[in-house]
Amino acid sequence: MRGTTPIVAALFWAAASPVKGQDISVSGYVGTQTLHFTQDGLGADTINRLNAEIQARGALTDTLSFELRLFGSTPLNGQGGDYFDPRVAKLTWQAGNWQADLGYDTVYWGVAESQNVVNIINQREQILDLQGDLALGQPMFALRYFGPSWSIEGYVMPQFRELEYGIDGRRWGFGFPVDQSAATFESPDGDDHVDYALRFAGSVGNLEYGLSAFDGTLRRPVLVLDTTAGTLSPHYVQGKQYGIDLQYTAGATLFKFEGIHVNPDSSAAYEAAVYGIENVLGDVFGNGWETTVFAEHNWDSRGVSGPAIFQNDLFLGARINFANLLDSQLTVGAMYDLDNGGLLGSVEFDTRLTDQVSLNAEYTFVSADNPDDTLFSASGFDQLKVQLEWNF
Amino acid sequence: MLKTAIRLTTIALAFAATAALAGDVQDPTSVMNKSRDMRKGLTNSVSDVVMTIKSGGQTVKREMRQYVLEVPRDGNRTINVFSKPADVNGVSVLTHSALNGNDKQWLNLPSVGRVKRISSSNRSGAFVGSEFAYEDLASFETEKYSYEGVERQSLGGKQVLAVTYTPKYSGSGYSRLRSFLDTTTYQPVEIHYFNRRGEHAKTLKLSKYKSYGSGGIWRPHRLVMSNKRNGNVTQIDFSTFRANGTAAGSFNSNQFARVK
What we know:
The complex is a heterodimer. Chain A is mainly β. Helix content of chain A is 3%, strand content 53%. The model of chain A has no long low-confidence stretch (mean pLDDT 91). Chain B is built from three helices and 16 strands. In chain B, the strands form two sheets. In chain B, strands 1, 2, 3, 4, 5, 6, 7, 8, 9, 10, 11, 14, 15 and 16 form a 14-stranded antiparallel sheet that branches. The radius of gyration of chain B is 21 Å and the shape is globular.
């Protein structure tokens, strides 16, 4: 985590500074996470960790403000090590229609639910979340200009964050263990390579759109098998990615499209897309619950013989919001491989238990019988994750 | 002869009196437009809001900050930033009200940095388990309703103007609404909501009216919604409205996520 220390120290000084002290707010959570593998296999059956996040924000002057979202995790039953991640640790300058950010930030691009192929700025937070929704903080300098219904954003990213495979002691289900210490980079600058991104986004009527371009280290590695060691090691390649994302809102139905064209420096260009609909069914059970359904197709031009997990997969999902005092919600989803017949599914329940305490329980399961299916090695790694958080 | 003259005069006077009364009360649309005019003018305001939900013996307090921008010849723009309960702290919703009721909404989820345009179609659904439906919390634009009638009535010993109207937009949970307006300020003190079966399902009481600005811009600071069927009550309390909580540009979908 080179380079973090001075930025984080500066931000803590800023947070402690008496300047505009009344504008500073602090919040966050402390919680436990239990990961239980429901089938016998290699490694521990249950991994327990203590997670915490502290959030602070405040104004330093009329144009300068700071924001922090610092996450830390430590093992409780001896499995794995500690890690710390600044999801957000930045200074923001705002004047008129301009905004500049310096430091760690989390930037989300995308409209779909099953996968966000255009979402390239941040590395995925693969330890906490297998579905790719959570992100590791990305060091950057970002400059944004806001028009009335559109915006232009440019990013300079001087440090690359690797995907984490080993820190929490969990098993990954790739068929071989992943040796993260053997990670390699196509660029001689390694993780110091400076990456660039640009995005133009806006809305016109009921259409939201985004056009993006990225040049640098592609976030998802190629896993290279070392046959003598019997391990997989991540190899990070250089390339360009161009993306488009669209959402059209028509009453109860949202139409979504994300598409990318990826041009790696040393291998063939390819495309990937995810597109589908979200429909708010409303109160179908007649008791006040709000039900929403999702259907998306995921496609990768490299096809069934390529490295993509979702090369021709159909996602179906439903969310029920119980509209109760505890904001309880049930989400079920399944990704079905139309070529190989494999299934990746999850059932997730989210609720508050008291004003301060919330619960999240998620069961993820894989069913893949075809050895050609990238998911095949993951069957047998069904897992139940339970998180209990005290929020302040 | 005199008797006929007296009878005719009495009838004529009766007609004159009726005509005077009718002219006095006006038509429902102009009454509601006048009501709207007497609460507009804060342009850009912010207020701290506490919602207390009592349901089935349990009580939950939700806190949020509401920013409102009045837009000439269009619906209001609103940003609601939630702070309590703590697990939704920082979540915010931007609403661009449309005069025809087809509001646009965006949801900001700070834990993942995502801003999402969401569907506003579930108008009759309950907001976070409270007695307020999404359509109850939406900005009152007179163009969203068709007005059936207005008449003078007595409510709790006080003279009010009762306006009956029905929603023009789809997906409403109501067959009609009846608003009881104060005869001086033209602001509603009570609203009755009739469900799709025509039953009086909910009652909203609006109180703690304060006048802002020199021209008298009226805003209620307490709303109490009672469910007639199950007795559940949700109360919303507004702090004093402050001017210019955030710049007008913040009410655009590309910038509202910065507003806390």
